[in-house]
Amino acid sequence: MIDLSTLYDKVSITSNTVLVSTGIVLLAILIHLYHTYWRLSHIPGPFWAKITNFQRVYWVKTKRAHRIHYDLHDKYGEFVRFGPNMVSISDPAAIPIVYPMRAGIPKGLFYRTLMPYTRKGGALPAVFNTRDEKLHKQIKNPIAPLFSLSNVITYEPFVDKVLAVMFEQINARCVKPKEYVDFGLWLQFFAFDVMGTLTFSKRYGFLETGKDVDGMLATIWTYMTTAAPMTQIPWLDEFWYKNRYTALLRKTTGFSILSIVGKFISQRLEQVKGAGVESEDEVNKKDMLSRFIHITQTNPAVPKWVVTAWTFSNVIAGSDSTGVVLRTIWYNLLAHPETLQRLLDELESKDLTRPFPKWEEVRDLPYLDACVQEGVRMHPPFCLPFERVVPESGLTICGRYFPPGTVVGVNPYVVNRHKPTFGNDAESWRPDRWLGKSDEERRRMEGAVLTFGAGRRICLGKYIALLEIKKMVPAILLSYKVQIRDPKEFKVENSWFFRQMGLIAKIEKREQVNS
Ligand code: HEM
C-alpha cells in the first residue's frame, strides 16, 4: 500500500527544490544585470542599451544606425553607452587613443562575425577581420609595401584598362539622347572590375554586360544585411552562423566571392606550376595575385593559405568601399552643379592627358583633392563603430577611465560630422572647407576623419582607392556631361556597409571628346 504522507513529503521537497533553484537562477541573473549595468553606469545612454545588446541590434536592423548613432550623441554627448559592455565615442581626440599605432588594443568580436564561414574550413581570418594581433602582424607585414603610396603608380595601367572598358560600354549603352541610366550602378561596376583586374587580371564582367553578373553584388548585400545585426551581438552569431551543426540547417557557403577567389587562385597556381621564381622587377609589373604568390615563394615562413586571405581582403574590403565613395562624390557634384563646374574649370585649365589623366597630373590638384576629401568625409562606406577591446591595464580616454574588457568604438559617420572640427555646416557638402587651411589645421581635420580607420589597422588600400577615384572622376568629367534626374531620388541604407540607390543620370559626350 502507498504511504500517502511519504509521497506528499517527496512532492513538497521536490517543489521546494525547484523553487529554491529558480530563486537562485533569478538572483544570479539580477546580480549579473546589476553588475553589468553598474560597471559602466557613469556613461549615459538609453535605458535598454545598458542591460541588453538587442537595442543596438534593432538600430542596425532599421538600416539607419548611422543617423540613430548621430542623434544619440547629439542627445547624450561624446560618450554614449550603446550596449551593456559597449561605449561609443564621438570626440576626434579619442581616435589616436582607441586606434593607436602600437599593438595592445585589439579588434573586438564584432570582426569575428565578419569572417566568412564554411563547415569544412571554419571561419577564415583575413587581414581586415583577424583579432589576433600576432597573426595580423604575420599576414600584414609581408604585403604592406605593395600598398604604399610610392608603389601605387604600378597599378595605374590596370585602372586605365578598366577605364577604357567603361568608356566603351558607356558609349555603347548609356549615351542615348533623353535616356536616363542608373549611373550609381556603373560606378559600382567600375569599382568591382578595377579590383578584379588589379588582383587577378580578370574582370568579373560587370562593365561588359552592364549587369550584376551571377547576382554577386546582390549576394554581398544579402550577406551584409545578415551579418550587420550579428556584429552587435557576437554570441548569437557564434551560435547560429559559426557552428558546424547549425550550419547544417542552412545553405552556408561562406559566400560566392570566396569561391570565386579560390577558383582564380587555383587557376593561377596551376599556370605557374614548375615555372621559376620571377625577379622583383618582373613581378612588379603584374597583378597583385602574382605579387602575393611571389611573396610566398621567396619567404618560406609565410604560410601558403594566406594568399587566399590576402586576395579575399582585397576584394571584400576594396570594391564596394571605393564604389560608395565614388557615388558620394558624384552624387554631390551633380546635386551641387556649381562645385561640378569649379572642378571642371580646374581640370580644363591644366594640360591633362586625355582621355585618362595620369595619377601624377591629378593627385595634387587642389579642388579635386578638396572634393575627394569631402566625399570621403561625408559618407564613409563602413558605418558602424570600429570596435576595440580595452586591455588588462584599463584605458583612460579623454579623461574617462574604462575598465579592462570594455568594448569602445568610434563611428566614422558620427565623428566625421564633429561640428567643433568641421563647422556648423558639417552635414553639408562644401569642398571649400578643405582649402586655404594651414598645415596644422589640415592635419587636425584629416586626423578627425575616420573613413579609412586609423592607427595600426588603418586601411591598407587607401592609396589604391585614391588612385582609382582621382583618375576616374576627372576622366569621366572631362569626356562626358552627366546630369542627375532628381537628387531627391538618391537614397542610402546602412548595413555596416553603406548602400546607395537612385543615382539616375543622363550621360552625353562632351564636344571635345577624342575617344
Ligand atoms: C574608399 C575606399 C576604402 C575605404 C573607405 C576603406 C576603409 C577601410 C577601413 C575603415 C578599414 C579598417 C576598419 C577597422 O578599423 O576595422 C580598412 C581596412 C582594410 N582595407 Fe580598406 N577601404 C577602402 C579601400 C580599400 C582597397 C581599395 C583595398 C585593397 C586594395 C583595401 C584593403 C583593406 C585592407 C587589407 C584592410 C585591413 C587592414 C588591417 O587590418 O591591417 N581597402 N579599410
UniProtKB/TrEMBL annotation:
Keywords on record: Heme, Iron, Membrane, Metal-binding, Monooxygenase, Oxidoreductase, Transmembrane, Transmembrane helix
Gene3D superfamilies the UniProt entry points to: Cytochrome P450
Entry annotated with the keyword DNA-binding: no
Binding residues for heme: C459
Keyword DNA repair (UniProt): no
Molecular function in Gene Ontology: heme binding; iron ion binding; monooxygenase activity; oxidoreductase activity, acting on paired donors, with incorporation or reduction of molecular oxygen
Domain of life: Eukaryota
PROSITE patterns documented for this protein: CYTOCHROME_P450 (PS00086)
Pathway(s) served: Secondary metabolite biosynthesis
Cofactor(s) this protein requires: heme
Transmembrane segments annotated in the record for this chain: 13-34
Classification via CDD domains: CYP57A1-like
Family: Belongs to the cytochrome P450 family.
Stated name of the protein: Cytochrome P450 oxidoreductase
Species classification: Eukaryota, Fungi, Dikarya, Ascomycota, Pezizomycotina
